[in-house]
Specification:
By secondary structure, the protein is mainly alpha-helical. The protein contains one helix and two strands. This is MIP34575p1.
């Protein structure tokens, strides 16, 4: 039937669009995650250099969090 064929075509098109949107979202999520990791690394370096400039005793544990 005509409508059955149309429905199948529409479903396939929607499926294509959905998979495209999912791929796009995944790419953006991974980019955002990478940016977040870079920012935390930069922040840690900045904190460490500030502590070195102030000559404060700085102990870094294994999780690379700066402790005073």
């Amino acid at each position: 039937t005509f409508f059955g064929c149309l429905a199948v075509k529409l479903f396939l098109k929607l499926n294509e669009i959905c998979s495209f949107v999912l791929k796009f979202a995944n790419t953006w999520l991974s980019r955002i995650r990478n940016i977040g990791e870079e920012v935390t690394v930069i922040n840690r370096r900045a904190i460490a250099s500030e502590l070195q400039q102030k000559n404060l005793p700085c102990k870094c544990n294994t999780k690379t969090k700066v402790q005073y």
